[in-house]
Amino acid sequence: MKDRKYCFERFSFYDKVKIEKRLTDMAEQGWLLEKIGVFLWSYKKIEPQKISVSVVYFPKAEALTIEPTEGQKMFYEFCEHTGWKLLCDNGEMQVLYSTEEDPLPIETDIYVELGAIHDTVMKYKRPFLILLISLIFLSSLLCIGNGLWNVGISVIPSIQENRLLYGFVIVGILDVLEGFWDIGEYYLWRRRALKRAEIGELEPVKRHFWVDNTLTVLQVFVIIWALRGNAFQEVLGVSFFKVIFYFAVAMCLPVSFALYLRGKKASQKEIMVTTFLTTIVAAFLWFFMIFMGNAGI
Questions:
Q1: What is the mean pLDDT of the segment spanning 32-55?
Q2: In sequence order, what are the beta bridge partners of 104?
């Protein structure tokens, strides 16, 4: 008998109402949440039971560190005294459960909950802005490296000859548009939630996933379009795999530093700053390796 189950769960991380209902229903079916992944949530087999689930947002949690912060430890102790146990956490989102019949609610003020959610969203906006800046930076380097801009001369090769380059830029733009759409949906939900909070209820999240799906499909078509515009041997030959290999090697730099600092229990700020700086270095390293490879060195 399988004792693990993996489900593709597609929730906005601030969709407290639907997440709690989903986890409660799964427990009644005999599956208890074990780990929240990027795409898949892991459940372990249990005896079917009725439990209460509470999703609490803790903006001061440090997602990149192993050990919980002192504030989190105090929060967990408080929850233990009120009958709530930590089920799992995913950075700033803490998932707790109680087997008591009518447990005391952890949060009693909806405005406090909305404030915690908003502070968490603000933390996620900063990496998005860094992504946007990085995309512009890397796209500029790629354009320069492919001869779009020369010193004092504007040279724009035809799209037919440089589909791979233009495809890279378009996919990045679509990715940024998806990020702006998600942020816009959050602010629309927040405006409705603040109004509904006046009657003491939390507004459920209504996501328009068809927009995200459409942008994803467009990205796939752009990638296919970009690859079809290049010679078969050029795209799938040694040079293409060389670029991918160089990228994988370069990206080992920020990942290795992040894992090392995480093992040393460094602060989240130290890990984020180091990762950002080493990512920039890795980008230069990637372009340097491509240049050296094309030069036959």
A1: 88
A2: none
Residue 150, pLDDT above cutoff 50: no
Phi, psi (deg, nearest 5) at residue 45: -75, 130
Residue 68: pLDDT band by 50, 70, 90 thresholds? low
3-class DSSP state of 41: strand
pLDDT confidence of residue 25: 93
Name, in order, each residue with C-beta under 8 angstroms of 214's C-beta and a sequence gap of 6 or more.
none
Report whether 40 contacts 6 (CB < 8 A).
yes
| Distance from C-alpha of 83 to C-alpha of 288, rounded to nearest angstrom | 57
Structural contact between residues 222 and 170, judged by C-beta atoms closer than 8 angstroms: yes
Which residues, 6+ apart, have CB-to-CB distance to 184 below 8 Å? Answer: none
Beta strands in 111-178 (DSSP E): 149-150, 153-154
Contact 249, 289 (CB under 8 A): yes
Return the amino acid letter for 11: F
Instruction: Note the maximum CA span of the chain.
Output: 74
Six token digits for residue 282: 């890795």
More confident residue, 88 or 250: 88
Q: What is the pTM of this model?
A: 0.69
Mean of pLDDT values over 184-193: 89
Which range of 24-28, 66-70, 105-109, 267-271 scores highest in mean pLDDT? It is 24-28
With a CB cutoff of 8 Å and minimum separation 6, the contacts of 287 are 141, 145
Q: Which two tokens stand for residue 117?
A: 């959610």
| Local structure of residue 205 (DSSP, 8 states) | P
CB proximity list for 156: less than 8 A, separation 6 or greater: 148
Say if residue 123's pLDDT is above 80: no
What is the total residue count of the chain?
Answer: 297
Within 8 A by CB and 6+ apart from 260, the residues are none
